[in-house]
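TA notes, week 10

Several of you asked for a full example with nothing omitted. So below is the full record: structure tokens for the whole chain, then the designed sequence directly under it. When grading your own attempts, check the secondary structure regions first.
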């Protein structure tokens, strides 16, 4: 069987897995980020020691109101609020330093550009918020274990620090709800594990990664729901420079907690399929892009969802 036929067979099997997966614990682009996995070191795409800079741009336009698994229309009932749109555009800057193939540390900081609007049916009046601010800083460490020449597994651990703001307001001075703020206000623990295996003499790589994020307490009456993310992916090299990418991204988020939270209108389960391409401009500089397509979404209460999302970025091995 040719290399291309093998890639097609694996991709078809992955797609069938998506269609047959029990629709309970799933993945999506959530309220402010897209769940595509671009941690190349956990996929075996970038190995060795040195400093690496990453820039990742995300676009998610949540303009479809959903209740449970069904699309709905705003009801316009007096005394209620109908969400209309949340447009998320963010730029994630990351620095990853590998002391060796076995140990590394990284830092990630997002710049969040968010526009949100809803209708207060008491008036009715339209309220909106528009801000561009830095979000919460993530600091992680990675320990990798080489299992063979073609496979490795690893552990990740770290924290998300409350560096992002929680008091953004609109032109009327109304403070946005906590789930819309660029920061959560909480310190979160981050734990993860991954495995990858190279096939076809490095032309094809299969990987899987699971990540758990849990807040260590409330801040100012709010704690975001804990999250579990599971990614399964395939990377196939068409040439020495260009690769086809395919991921299955699952994401489960628990309900937010606290007197300033909306537990009945937060959290959910999602499943996305994310095809993409990557290209090496130089041996040290990689460009990539993904489109993320929802296969299943279930939200608690009534929430806004997106019909598609996009991710584009670069990864540069500086030294």
């Amino acid at each position: 069987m040719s290399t291309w036929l093998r890639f097609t067979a694996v991709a078809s099997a992955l797609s069938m897995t998506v269609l047959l997966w029990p629709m309970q614990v799933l993945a999506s682009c959530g309220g402010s980020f897209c769940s595509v996995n671009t941690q190349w070191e956990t996929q075996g795409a970038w190995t060795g020691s040195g400093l690496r800079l990453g820039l990742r741009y995300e676009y998610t336009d949540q303009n479809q109101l959903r209740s449970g698994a069904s699309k709905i229309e705003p009801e316009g009932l007096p005394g209620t609020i109908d969400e209309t749109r949340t447009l998320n555009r963010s730029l994630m800057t990351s620095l990853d330093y590998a002391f060796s193939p076995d140990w590394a540390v990284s830092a990630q900081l997002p710049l969040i550009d968010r526009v949100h609007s809803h209708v207060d049916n008491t008036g009715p009046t339209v309220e909106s918020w528009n801000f561009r601010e830095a979000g919460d800083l993530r600091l992680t460490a990675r320990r990798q274990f080489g299992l063979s020449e073609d496979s490795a597994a690893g552990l990740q651990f770290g924290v998300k620090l409350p560096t992002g703001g929680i008091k953004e307001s609109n032109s009327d001075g109304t403070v946005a709800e906590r789930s819309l703020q660029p920061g959560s206000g909480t310190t979160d623990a981050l734990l993860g594990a991954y495995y990858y295996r190279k096939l076809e003499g490095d032309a094809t790589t299969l990987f899987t990664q699971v990540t758990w994020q849990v807040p260590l307490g409330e801040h100012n009456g709010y704690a975001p729901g804990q999250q579990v993310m599971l990614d399964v992916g395939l990377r196939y090299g068409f040439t020495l420079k260009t690769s086809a990418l395919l991921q299955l991204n699952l994401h489960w988020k628990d309900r937010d907690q606290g007197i300033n939270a909306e537990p009945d209108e937060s959290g959910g389960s999602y499943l996305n399929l994310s095809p993409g391409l990557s290209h090496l401009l130089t041996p040290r500089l990689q460009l990539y892009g993904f489109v993320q397509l929802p296969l299943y979404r279930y939200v608690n209460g009534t929430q806004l969802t997106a019909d598609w999302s996009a991710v584009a970025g670069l990864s540069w091995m500086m030294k």
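Confidence is low (pLDDT under 50) at residues 1-32. Use that as a sanity check on your answer.
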